[in-house]
Amino acid sequence: MTQLHTDSKGTAESISAAPAASAPSEDMQDTGQGEGRTRVPWYAAMLCRVGIHTGRWEYLAEGQCTQMRECRRCAATKVRTKHQREWRYARDGRCEQIRTCKRCNAVSGERTKHQWGENYTVANWREGHRCKRCGVVETWDTSYDD
Ligand SMILES: [Zn+2]
Ligand SMILES: [Zn+2]
Ligand SMILES: [Zn+2]
After folding, report:
1. Would strands 96-101 and 107-112 be described as parallel, antiparallel, or unpaired?
2. Do 101 and 77 lie in a common domain?
3. Is residue 134 within 8 Å of residue 126, measured between CB atoms?
4. I need a surface site. Which of 32, 59, 104, 137 has the fewest CB within 10 A?
5. What range defines the domain where residue 75 resides?
């Protein structure tokens, strides 16, 4: 068995890469106040002066909702309470909800939230719907007597 060896090497194409255009260097303004501090633009320092600080609020401890923020510019600290509240049903088969904080479990509200099904006819001139969760039925009059 004769093997035909066909060397068909593709011709290597030379890719001419254009040199990346160098960005024009901007002349940064240097105020020359070398005091070892991070340079804060005047407008940012102004914001700090009027109480608009920049920084991330971080929780101080797990299970608590106290947050502290340290300003990136002036290092001023501030403390606040930030709850992560959500409504949830107090128990199965009931529609009372309580609003609690996911972090510290503080309760901050109560309400009733039914999960109504489709409206249906109860009787003449009367419609209703039934809660899919607790089974309570609410009906209303559909006769429009002006
Ligand atoms: Zn600040
Ligand atoms: Zn909380
Ligand atoms: Zn219900």
Report:
1. antiparallel
2. no
3. no
4. 32
5. 42-81
pLDDT at residue 41, as a whole number: 84
Together in a domain, 71 and 96: no
Closest ligand (CA of 115): 3
pLDDT tens figures, 90-99: 999 999 999 9
Token reading at 105: 């479990």
Q: How far is the CA of 100 from the centre of ligand 2 (A)?
A: 8
From the CA of 93, how far away is ligand 2's center (Å)?
A: 26
Give how many domains the chain has, as a whole number: 3
pLDDT value at residue 10? 43
Ligand nearest to the CA of 80: 2
- In this structure, which ligand is nearest to the CA of 97? 3
| Nearest alpha carbon to residue 29 among 43, 8, 46, 10 | 43
